[in-house]
Design goal:
Blueprint: H1 5-23, H2 35-52, E1 56-60, E2 67-72, E3 80-86, E4 106-108, E5 117-119, H3 127-142, E6 149-155, H4 165-171, E7 180-183, E8 195-200, E9 202-211, E10 217-218, H5 219-222, H6 229-238, H7 261-267, H8 274-281, H9 294-297, E11 303-311, E12 321-322, E13 325-334, H10 340-353, E14 360-369, E15 372-373, H11 379-392, E16 397-400, H12 407-415, E17 419-421, E18 437-439, H13 440-462
Parallel strand pairs: 3-6, 3-7, 7-17, 8-16
Antiparallel strand pairs: 1-2, 2-6, 4-5, 5-18, 8-15, 9-13, 9-14, 10-12, 11-13
Helix pairs in contact: 1-3, 1-13, 2-3, 3-13, 4-12, 11-13
Length: about 475
């Protein structure tokens, strides 16, 4: 195939402007206040897919936010690539920590992105990475170089658990039939060290509520005589880890896969600077489960973290009160073979049992998903590896990710397809955080690399 570099250079400004316009829409699926914006984004994605060369595009309504499906079928005898992405974004809070408004995209140079990065909520997760695929399709159709069939499934509920995606997939297996699924919702080690994500952690997300007295109490009259739900909750949370930062829930590790010494040695070959990692986060030392390295702790080991905690008076000044209730949101990242529903049950039973008398505990499961590992000896992985090697000039490193994309295991279960995770973001891009950004170089490099995947995958499938 002809190099896409020239086409990208000719259309660079337009490619950036189109993404910027998409990023201006605050498609926050978690907050009903933005529901119309989420719907507007689905329409914008439909228009973009049609303009890029899809023959048909439809917006499929669900009980939540719609799924945008598009396709270009050139020959039923050729392989089919199914592209998955999401157009919803995380809430931008806390707004005061953004250097520029989250929905007013700006391009600024950074140490990791000397050619500039687009600062906006959703720039890297996942609008920017999803839009690379749209523009890659445009390049292939406009230059008559699309070598196989392509289907798109872009949803609007990934950041809230993809509640309706499973229903859609189960009801549309024939429509979604494919030879490989392609997702860009992950990252790579560095711009000069390309990598392909070969493993994802699963997820169990719960909310807990601890209730003490039937009303807020005066802390002078009642303090020391009744259980304080906030005190109790913090003790209960602290008890979930031991002195080695090992999770104390009975049965939690029963199905955890222990990687061999050889596999851990291979992982350790990936370039990593502990000092650089600490400096980037402005911390004096790392912290985690004893016996594992930083890269192992955030990829091949399960975790339990408090994502939010609240209760009592948090306004200006003082209010001496013992709150009636205290709350926390807790997420557990799981490794392959740990079943998220089983882990949720284990958590619920343990958390309720470790509560002292004098309080009531309620555990509300929110969402979750299974972990996933993709083998590196498949045609899909080999095609992706050759694509990166073509555009980066070096072979990518297979790497397990600490993040979760719960629908990946669902796709394999329902559609029987393997997934290739071709991410182009960096860990420093601040996804889910204030000042999220995505490098201009990375965005354009993704558009350049993706067409080679189609080319090599089709070539290998034919042979």
């Amino acid at each position: 195939m002809n190099s896409p570099k020239e086409y990208i250079a000719q259309n660079k400004t337009r490619f950036l402007n189109e993404l910027i316009e998409l990023l201006k829409i605050p498609s926050v699926s978690a907050d009903p206040a933005f529901s119309q914006d989420v719907l507007n984004t689905s329409k914008a994605v439909k228009t973009a897919l049609l303009d890029a060369g899809c023959d048909t595009v439809e917006i499929y309504e669900t009980e939540g936010y719609p799924i945008v499906y598009g396709e270009r079928i050139i020959d039923a005898a050729l392989p089919t690539v199914l592209v998955y992405g999401h157009y919803d974004v995380q809430p931008a809070d806390p707004l005061e920590l953004w250097d520029s408004p989250p929905y007013e995209p700006v391009i600024k140079e950074t140490e990791n992105h000397p050619e500039g990065a687009i600062f906006a909520r959703g720039s890297c997760d996942d609008k920017g990475q999803m839009y690379m695929h749209v523009k890659a399709l445009e390049y292939m159709t406009k230059t008559d170089q699309l070598p196989c069939n392509v289907k798109f499934m872009i949803e609007g509920e990934e950041e809230v658990g993809s509640d309706n995606l499973g229903i859609y997939v189960a009801n549309n297996k024939e429509k979604l039939a494919n030879d490989i699924i392609l997702i860009s919702d992950t990252g790579m080690i560095a711009n000069d060290v390309p990598s392909i994500t070969t493993g994802l952690r699963g997820l169990s997300y719960v909310e807990v509520e601890v209730t003490g007295p039937n009303r807020d109490l005066h802390s002078g009259l009642y303090g020391g005589a009744v259980a304080n739900p906030i005190n109790i909750l913090t003790k209960m949370i602290a008890s979930l880890h031991d002195e080695n930062n090992h999770i104390t829930i009975p049965g939690f590790y029963d199905k955890v896969e222990e990687l061999s010494t050889e596999e851990r040695a291979e992982m350790a070959k990936a370039p990593f600077s502990l000092q650089g990692y600490q400096d980037a986060l402005d911390i004096e030392s790392v912290y985690g489960e004893k016996g594992y390295t930083t890269n192992e702790r955030n990829s091949i080991r399960p975790t339990l973290d408090v994502n939010g905690i609240w209760g009592g008076y948090i306004g200006e000044g003082a209010k001496t009160v013992i709150a009636s209730k205290a709350y926390a949101k807790i997420s557990m990242r799981l490794v392959p073979h740990q079943d998220w529903e089983e882990i949720t049950t284990l958590f619920q039973v343990h958390f309720e049992q470790c509560a002292p008398k004098g309080v009531k505990v309620k555990v509300t499961p929110h969402h979750g998903g299974q972990g996933y590992v993709t083998p590196i000896d498949t045609v899909g992985y080999q095609a992706a590896s050759k694509a990166y090697e073509t555009t980066f000039g070096k072979k990518p490193i297979p790497q397990r990710s600490g993040g979760s994309i719960p629908i990946v295991s669902l796709f394999e279960e329902e559609l029987g397809s393997k997934t290739i995770l071709m991410g182009f973001g960096l860990d420093s891009d601040a996804i889910h955080s204030p000042n999220e950004h995505f490098g201009v170089w990375n965005y354009l490099k993704g558009i350049e690399t993706i067409p080679y995947f189609y080319h090599f995958f089709t070539e290998m499938k034919k042979s």
